[in-house]
Amino acid sequence: MAVVPRIWCSFSKGVFHNNQFFTKSSNLKSFHTSLSVFSEKLFTAKHEWVQVDGKIGTVGISDYAQEALGDVVYAQLPDVGTVVKQKDECGALESVKAASEIYSPLSGKVVEKNVAVEETPSLINSSCYDKGWLFKLELTNETELSELMKEDKYKEFLKTEESH
Amino acid sequence: MRLLLKIIRRRSIPGCFYSTSSTTVARSIYISKSTDIFTNLALEDWLYKNFNVTNHELLMLWQNEPCVVIGRHQNPWIECNFAQLPYIAGGVKLARRNSGGGTVFHDLGNLNLTFFTTRKNYNRKRNLELISRALKKSFEVNSEVNSREDLCISDFKISGTASKLGRTTAYHHCTLLVSADKDNLSLALKNNLGECTKTNASKSVKSPIMNLTEEKSDITVQEVMTAVILEYGNTNDIKIIESIDDDIFPGVTNIKNEYLSIAWRYEKTPKFQITKSINFAQNQDLVILLTVEHGRVSSVDLRHKNKDLSVSKDFSEMFDSLIGKLFSEEVLSEFDMLLCGLRNSQECKSIVCDS
Predict the structure, then answer these.
(1) If one looks up domain B2-265 in CATH, what number appears?
(2) For residue A121, which residues of chain B lie inside 8 Å, CB to CB?
(3) Which residues contact A149 (CB under 8 A, 6 or more apart)?
(4) Residue of B nearest to A161 (CA)
């Protein structure tokens, strides 16, 4: 099994900047909880992210992707039980009259889709890394994880993309 | 693969390629001779999947016999005059396309243009401006691209746009109203069901439209096609596609059958709910909800004061008889009949009085 690096929480913006954080014992408790729950988000070159917890990978699209799409008005997500291979088409997001295909960043079986996003597609715009996740996969080939980028590498990648 | 495509014109235009930042991009134009919406959508999809657009862009020009084309995530029953389509213009077909956006009407007075590019080079505004330039140069017609990326003359739309973006390839397609039958168009897109329907499906934004012939009366579709070809220009590869079959486009028949299928056209409809109410005295509304999932009735529920009510065996059997049926005009009439039955029943009156 591939080793999934577990860092504290790559996207918890305020956590490390909040100095009071370390002085409050109640916060410290929640901090320990997040340590065991969250792993680092990994990114694809096509702007999907995946966060792995055990054998389950949660999939979404990056901030760069949601901004490029504009207001998402409809989310067609893969049904639970769908078996997907890495890079398979598995749904679509509609925004400003364009249907953009969703591709699975990893191989696996869909175990959950985000019903809240189906009801309120704008969650993808307002909270792409949290409430706007798309679906969860039970991973079948964890070696694929090594092809994905960590956040810092993805940020570097974005810079080269934008310069083209 | 045998590409038995007839080349209609070979024009040696100087600089038949254009350059982007570092690469040279060739351009081809395919003109479909089919006027069947399902065949043309299949060809478009085939090209999207098989034509290598890396350094080679493609424009497909096509026309259809009267049809209504809904967007990928739309509801056919609330976007068009569903029950009347067979009686308009000798029969209007209903198709669902693969791109986003709203519902459009096509007939032979309308020209469709599909611009295939890499996802990176996808640019709807650039394509629409190309059409606008063509109209200006050939007919002295002034048009402009509005904020919704539609082509307009004053405040009237002459073209509707939609697109599909894949991992590496994308297309932008648009209609161009030259001399379409506006009466048929209005009739085909008329609908009232939307008012009592709750859905997440993307809804069309209704806009006033006009034909190019209203600006300049003698314009023909053929002339517009020529104008666009000249402006897209920079190509010595213009092909008229006489026949669209598996010999030339392997697998295209399967794609066409997919577009024709009940599953694609109707069952792909996002979940929706039709609400009708029976008004008894003193604002005592009894609400009846018909839920349709994957195009089929999934439940019929009766509510009073936001609470679900159970009904007697007679009524529940009538409710059940609708479940599983593909939504249609008949289902809607049965639903309305059920509503009448409920309205007149003693049972309903007692439900309302008891609660």
Answers:
(1) 3.30.930.10
(2) 200
(3) A42, A43, A44, A45, A157
(4) B120
Q: What is the pTM of this model?
A: 0.84
Domain B272-354 has CATH 1.10.3470: no
A19 to A22, A24, A29, A148, B181: CA distances (angstroms): 6, 10, 16, 32, 69
Q: What local confidence, expressed as pLDDT, does residue B19 receive?
A: 43
pLDDT by residue (tens digit) across A15-63? 333 333 333 344 444 444 333 345 789 999 989 999 999 899 999 999 9
B254 vs A146: which has the higher pLDDT: B254
- CA–CA separation, B49 and A73 (whole Å): 25
The rounded distance, in Å, linking the Cα atoms of B342 and B350 is 11
The segment(s) of chain B belonging to CATH 3.90.1010 are: 272-354
Q: Quick one: pLDDT at residue B8?
A: 35
Q: Which two tokens stand for residue B230?
A: 């000249």
CB B103 within 8 Å of CB B68: yes
Residue of B73, B99, B161 lying closest to A76 (CB–CB): B73
Contact criterion met (CB below 8 Å) for A61 and A124:
yes
- B164 interaction partners in chain A (CB closer than 8 Å): 98-101
Residue whose tokens read 């706007």: A132
State the average pLDDT over residues B12-19.
36
Q: CATH 3.30.930.10 spans which residues of chain B?
A: 2-265
- pLDDT class for B283, splitting at 50, 70, 90? low
Which of residues B335 and A19 earns the better pLDDT score?
Answer: B335
Domains and CATH numbers, chain A: 41-141+149-162 (2.40.50.100)
User: What are the C-alpha distances in Å from A45 to residues A36, A125, A163?
Assistant: 27, 19, 15
Query: Are B165 and A94 an interchain contact pair (Cβ–Cβ within 8 Å)?
Result: no
